[in-house]
Amino acid sequence: MNILDLIKADGWPGKKAASTNGGEWSGPCPWCGGDDRFRVWPETCRYWCRGCGQKGDAIQYLRDKRGMKYLEACSFLDVEPRLSAPPSIGATRKPTYEPRITTAPPETWMKRAGEFITHAEHELETNQTALEWLQRRGISPDTAKRFHLGWSWSDHHDPGELWGMAEAVRIHEGLTIPYVVNNLPVRIRIRRHEWADPRYILIKGSDTRPMILSSESPAAVLVESELDAITLWAAAGDFISIVALGNVSARPDVYAHRLMERCRVILNALDADEAGGKASWNGWIQNYGDRVRRWPVPGGKDPGEAYQAGIDLKAWILAGLLIDENEQERFAIMTIDGEQSAADAIKYILTKGENHGSKKEQADGSRRG
Question: Which of 80, 56, 50 is nearest to 6 (CA)?
Fold first, then answer.
């Protein structure tokens, strides 16, 4: 009995989806349900759910699904047991994740931060070089003002007592990127010059919660930096929420988690090639299931660079929201291990999406006629 026969014997209604790799069957997951998220490859005796992450071979299936012990599963399949039983994948597959609770900085800190932000905003208004740089990333002067972007002209130390801190607070030269929640500043990040390392510095005392630009939409896109989030807000903030996590390995706080829970689609635009990127991709799938779609930008490493490369960010997001599940899975398989570039895969899907739309409109027109 192969793995397909074994799973079908438990009433699984899967159907053949492809002839690659000796044949591939798809259907609802025996553990978490859904439509076509569960895949079986009889030739290699493997199964995998891209929703809950259940995976393994025939022995693993019997242990996780039918509750058999290792030796019992080996006897059922008439295979020779190993000297030591492998650990159960299902038992350790999904880590426990509790969204962290974030708190705003002290009132003294927010008061001084507000004064600093106001001054930096005025400085940016006269910094034509910085304004042009932002414009090239899709951030207009009006958008910069909407998000209180500013400019700090010099490296210096501000007295700590002004911030409610015991020690002096260092202020770096560069673009100031505040995060203001309910009219209160909770973070100030400074983007330093291109040659500076590290490029981004937090002002001491800042909160590290994700930036959430909510549109009350049932869809969200995940990016790394606040500037990326602002760029996307300018392009598509009217129909999608944007969450900037700060880095590819970061997890949502309780507020971002609530947003994810109500979303029907979550586009993961984090860079999976960076350290921690692939582990992060797996973590999002484990926590939010098949609502998460891998969707990196088709040009450059982030939305800002994609904008500079001439990518229509609104069309890119729409394509991510509208492609069907088989295309999503195909894209993830093609790109997650670097077999094909994200740019080539997404350009293909964008083109196909336009053609598909045209055909759909023609079909709708025919039916109306």
Answer: 56
